Here is the input.
Amino acid sequence: RQARSAGRDGRDHQRESGQGGVGFGASARVGVDMLRPRPGQRGMSFGANVMASTWLYPASRDAVAVATMYGGGLHLSFAEGRLVPWVEGNAGVVLTGPVVRFGVDVGAGLDIRLTRALLLGPTLRYVHVVQPDSDPFPEDARTLGGGLSLTLRAE
Here is the structure.
């Protein structure tokens, strides 16, 4: 599964200083189904995945902030013919320059089956990066993004 998203960073200190705002993100996920319906049947699929994502945001007039997340999580989808609604949740480490923080990433989407192995559809994703209280700006970073998901399945 790959997704490209545009989102908004919700940290208060960035809004007050003129930073933050609209950014761009991309992610890749590789997963395996642990439970899924028999071929040709409708039903629920449950699996695990590893993921990597990167988000780019304006940090100032001349600089871009980069946050990269590496993690893993669980994926649940419901095969209903051509439409495949799904939800997933991930947890992992977020790298923002030399600083490593904990983060979570949850998403939902509606894939449209184009072929047996190719799906495409809209996605909505929320990313939360935990800031330690000792940070100069201890407000957690929150991002809400929407975009397009492309799924390639090995059947």
About this structure: Residues 2-19 have pLDDT under 50 and may be disordered. The chain has one helix and eight strands. The helical segments are 12-16. The two ends are 14 Å apart (CA to CA).
